Amino acid sequence: MKKINNIFLTGEKGTGKSTIIKNALLKLKITPGGFTVGREKRAAGNCTAFFLLSGRKFVEIDIKNKNENNTFAFRKDADSNFIIRPEIFETYGLELLENCKEPVLMDELGRFELKAKKFRNRIIKILKSEKVTIGVIKNEENGFLNKIRQLDNIKILRVEKENRDEVFTKFLKKLKEVLNYG
Under a CB-based contact definition with an 8 Å cutoff, are residues 49 and 40 in contact? Predict the structure, then answer.
């Protein structure tokens, strides 16, 4: 078995997965590389667009950073299906993963990138490397996510509203361990 160098969180929407990662990074005063996903929401709380941002922007995601070159999924209204733009992953997404600093942030991996083969391959290559990677993996099944779950150098912690404080402590401890942090 390989040494664990990838730590991911999974769970239902709204359980605090990204918040756990953000709080751990703030506590350790670390700015990650990689990417995060911004969300544009309507007043009713429904997402109408998703966009990629540099991991450096993780602590303060701002809707003003959404633009034509980083929006990979959008819909006209809450009742419409999402229009997916895999080319955003294949261009800007790959750029964000190119020679990025550690820890590499991947928040979040899910279904929108299924048609972005080069991006998915880069994700797997990074996860198989010795780079420290942290992130969120969507709580659903597909070939891409299942392949990630089967890696022998990954630790996936399940977050629920009732256990998020405990998971934060475990995540922080494991992150310090893999980063050889003081």
Answer: yes
Burial (CB count within 10 angstroms: exposed 0-12, middle 13-18, buried 19+), residue 58: buried
Distance CA 170, CA 103 (A): 17
> What is the pTM assigned to this prediction?
0.92
In a domain, 25, yes or no: yes
User: What are the distances in angstroms from CA 109 to CA 8, 12, 43, 80, 105?
Assistant: 10, 14, 25, 22, 10
Torsional sign, CA 135, 148, 131, 166: positive
For residue 168, give its domain range: 6-178
pLDDT digit string (tens) for 113-150? Answer: 999 999 999 999 999 999 999 999 999 999 999 999 99
For 173, the 3-state DSSP assignment is helix
The CATH number covering residue 22 comes to 3.40.50.300
User: How far lies 48's CA from each of 126, 148, 165, in Å?
Assistant: 30, 27, 30
Q: Would 1 be classed as within a structural domain?
A: no
| Number of domains within the chain | 1
| Amino acid identity, position 76 | K
162 found inside a domain: yes
